[in-house]
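Recall the central idea of this unit: under ordinary conditions, the amino acid sequence of a chain determines the structure it adopts. In this exercise we apply that idea directly, starting from the sequence alone.
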Amino acid sequence: MQVKENSRIKNILSILNRIYPGVTTQLKHRNPFELLVATILSAQCTDRQVNSVTGELFQKFPTPKTMANAPPAELEKLVYATGFYKNKARHIKDCAGTIENQFGGKVPPTMDELLTLPGVGRKTANLVLSVAFGVPGIVVDTHVARLSRRLGLTPHRDPAKIEKDLSIKIPKRHWDDFCLQLIYHGRAICRARRPNCPECQLLQICQHGKSIGLPKKS
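Accordingly, the structure predicted from this sequence is:
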């Protein structure tokens, strides 16, 4: 049974690599600090919308020190379009202050340190570690959570449990690309509502597709 499951996972990885080669984060950034702030702003918001505000945000407040000292009202105005702007403005300001005061103005490069920053959970920390510091990580956003369940890779909804399941089943060298590929696929095909199963190249090995009785894609 385990051999069969390993073969299925290899097939999933192969298909995703073929559909989405060379994936990268779509959040625009020039350094770890900008990536961290952009990721905090991306909560319940599209990357495109985040990118539409971070240009001006980083032009006015390019460093942890300047952002920590920014007037809250101005930060709120700049990030308004990303939603939940009051909380997000507070998080990025407090986060910048912690980086400046406790880490010498540099984004810390470890999970434990990142998790001490205001507004930073495991999803954000894993993304920053992966993209900015080259440390493989399982980034569990809504797309990764949804597709992992539909593909039968986890039964859980709790992000920490999903991360644990995926870290066991997916070879570590594939973690970064796999999560980004699921995000791309979740946006393009396997949407939360009305997933486009007939056009999905993973249909033949997808538990969700089998459960709703769709014909196999040739």
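The mean pLDDT is 95.
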